[in-house]
Amino acid sequence: NHETDAVKVYFFPFLGGGHQIPMIDTARVFAKHGVTSTILTTPSNAAQFQNSITRDQKSNLPITIYTLTTPKNTQLPEIGMSAGPMTDSSVLLEPVKQLLLQHRPDCIVVDMFHRWAGDIIGELKVPMIVFNGNGCFPRCVLENMRKHVVFENLSSDSESFIVPGLPDRIEMTRSQVPSFRRNKSEFTDRMAQIEEKSLGIVINSFYDLEPVYADYIRNELGKKRWLVGPVSLYNRSVEDKKERGKQPTIDEQSCLNWLNSKKSNSVLYISFGSVACLPMKQLKEIAYGLEASDQPFIWVVGKIFNSSKSDDQTCSENWVLDEFEKRMKEMDKGLILRGWAPQLLILEHDAVGGFMTHCGWNSTLEGVCAGVPLITWPLSAEQFINEKLVTDVLRIGVQVGSREWGSWEEERKELVGREKVEFAVNKLMVESEEVEEMRRRVKSIAEKAKRAVEEGGSSYGDIDALIHELKILQIGKDV
Ligand code: UDP
Predict the structure, then answer these.
(1) Which atom of ligand 1 is nearest to the CA of 80?
(2) Which residues form a coiled coil (predicted)?
(3) C-beta 21 within 6 A of ligand 1
(4) Distances, alpha carbon 190 to alpha carbons 52, 187, 196, 309, 375, in Å
(5) Is residue 126 scored above 50 in pLDDT?
(6) Cis before 230 (ω within 30)
(7) 19 included as an active-site residue
């Protein structure tokens, strides 16, 4: 009986944390909907996720990790390490190809950044779906920039232009656009090709967050798409939330105990994601800005950019993060976390009332789902576009005022000063009519997010619709 065969889906995430995490959440929810899910990843990523997958297996979810072995002497970026979109992941394709030839799953879901996958998987005739790691709004902005001439008549990088063809008036400058998107490139062409060879795109978003843009993708861009998120909400237990993505290196209980001692909505949570790497002189400006604002905070200090430039060295000699940390602790003003923080648990704590974020898509959605307004501090990737969604379209955040896109590998040119930090923190954390409005708006979106993933919700329905299509293809294949 064909109808009772479980649909087998392979999930092939890109390498960095911001890509692995949402795709594993997606694999998990597909398994909950009866699909047999297999995640294809690298050895050290597999080790990071094994605990949470074992827990899923114990509760009888049909989900496994398959570890791809790569040719000797090839080094791949792993979770938390810099894996920008330009990273060449093509060495992984040969083992993936062999696997597909052997097992022939009903479908493979491929991250959009594995752009070499288009030709290889296309040839094998295994149905392919592209996983779009960011939302509908950034997708539309980037697509319209690719299709229309937008940069040619600009006299400088700081001159603004209106993104053509969009339902909202979105103003940007060239310096906010990822360098690999400023010109027509092999990169963007290949990403477009992989979509053309796919059945459609899976997007980590939900209809009520960006209905106009969800419709735009279908009606104006002519894409078949399924909105299946926010996928972070598929982590229901404390264990899952804590270990999502990685074994936490921070004792979550002491962090939550500290939050328990704080008033509702009083603490600012600060994190710049899994890849960002700020120089010490920028950390110093953040620290002074925070101290001047006098608002309680939890700050996850990620990797620090090891600058060879003398001014940064001088700065770190004169100013020591450890001392700031000690002082803040003694005054009971703030916690500095070094390592991998349990972000979902922190964000959903009642004491957290604001989130200073680099606007990575996952963090943005996680803040929204927790009903917390944002301070936007975009750095790289499509983060400046996500900022526009937060501040101009949804109106649930304030900008710190960062202006310049920077690549992952190089030291950032732009330094955001302490005055800007203090101003943005006070604007968001000191209650005002404006902030009350933002809070009301973001809480209402958070409610809609929860409804979207429940039975009867839009994302729940899109997952079932996609699985139904795969079942029909499966039956067709066997006949
Ligand atoms: N994250 C976390 N703890 C950390 C840092 C990051 O759990 O200390 C998670 C965060 O919750 C999010 C992901 O890592 O799910 C980061 O993805 P995002 O798209 O926000 O940014 P990226 O790391 O890709 O720049």
Answers:
(1) 23
(2) 421-455
(3) yes
(4) 33, 5, 10, 37, 34
(5) yes
(6) yes
(7) yes
Only one residue has tokens 């980590």, namely 204
The mean per-residue pLDDT over the stretch 366-390 comes to 97
CB 44 within 8 A of CB 79: yes
The strand pair at 352-357 and 303-305 is best described as unpaired
Please tell me if the CB atom of residue 191 comes closer than 6 angstroms to any atom of ligand 1: no
Handedness of CA 86, 128, 212, 19 (dihedral sign): negative
ipTM above 0.95, yes or no: yes
User: How does pLDDT run across 301-331, given as a tens digit for each residue?
Assistant: 988 887 665 555 555 556 789 999 999 999 9
DSSP-derived secondary structure letter, 389: I
> Residues near 305 by Cβ (< 8 Å), separated by ≥ 6?
277, 278, 279, 280, 411, 412
pLDDT greater than 80 at residue 157: yes
User: Which atom of ligand 1 is nearest the CA belonging to 22?
Assistant: 15
Instruction: Tell me the average pLDDT across 168-197.
Output: 85
Q: Is 134 in the pocket of ligand 1 (CB under 6 A)?
A: no
Contact assessment for residue 386 and residue 140, using Cβ atoms and an 8 Å cutoff: no
474 and 106 Cβ atoms separated by less than 8 Å: yes
Distance in Å, CA 69 to ligand 1 centroid: 25
DSSP 273: T
Task: Residue 212: count other Cβ atoms within 10 Å of its Cβ.
Answer: 13
Confirm or reject: Cβ of 365 under 6 Å from ligand 1: no
Q: Is 38 in the pocket of ligand 1 (CB under 6 A)?
A: no
Nearest CA to ligand 1 atom 17: 18
